[in-house]
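Summary for the steering committee. One of the milestones for this cycle was to obtain a three-dimensional model of the protein with cobalt (II) ion bound, which we needed before selecting residues for the alanine scan. The sequence and ligand used are listed below.
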Amino acid sequence: MDIKNVFSNNKKWIAEKLASNSNYFNQLSKGQEPEFLYIGCSDSRVTAEDIMGVQPGEVFVHRNIANLVNSVDLNVMSVINYAVRHLKVNHIVVCGHYFCGGVKAAMEAKDLGILNPWLRNIRDVYRIHKKELNDIKDENARYNRLVELNVQEQCINVIKNASVQQAHHQRGLLVHGWVFDVHSGELIDLKIDFPKILSEIMEIYRLE
Ligand code: CO
C-alpha cells in the first residue's frame, strides 16, 4: 500500500463513521471504559480489534514480539497496572498465534543480537516444558504447542502482579489465554484454568 493512501483512507473512514452516527467522535472523545486488556503479538496479521469484532474504546491493547509479559519490561508492567487499577478492566487476555516468527526464532540456534534477551523468555518456556515438547516428533506440531505453552506461561506472569491478584479478589477479574490460528482465522480459547493456576502459584507469588 502507498503511504499517501493513509490520509485519504482516514477521510473515508471518518465519513463512514459519521454516516452511521453523526455523534460518533463526540462520544469517542468523552473517554474510554474498556472491559478487556489484550496483550498480543506485534505481528501485522493479528489485529486485535478485527479478530475480536470490537470497536474503538472496547479493548485496551498492548502488543510486542511474541506476546511476552516480562516483569522487568516497564512498558507491559505499566500497561497492566494502568488497565487494572485505573481503567478497571475485568478481563485480561494473552493472545498468541500459530506461525509466530518470534516463537519460531526462539527454537533456532542463532545469534539474533538485541532479540536474544527478549526471545530468551520463550526459551525459558521451552525449558519448563522440555519433556512434553521434545516428545512431539513433528516440528510444526511442536512449534504450535510451544505457541500455546508460551501463552499459558505469560498468563501466569500476568497473575504474578499484585494489581491482578487484588482485582481478582475484589471484583472477580479473570485472565484468559487465546491463540489465533492465522491459517483459518479462528480464535481458540485455551481455557486456562485461572482459579487453579492462581491457587498453585500464590504459594510463592502472593503479594497481598
Ligand atoms: Co508473533
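Key point for the committee: Residues 41, 43, 66, 97, 100-102 surround cobalt (II) ion (CB under 6 Å).
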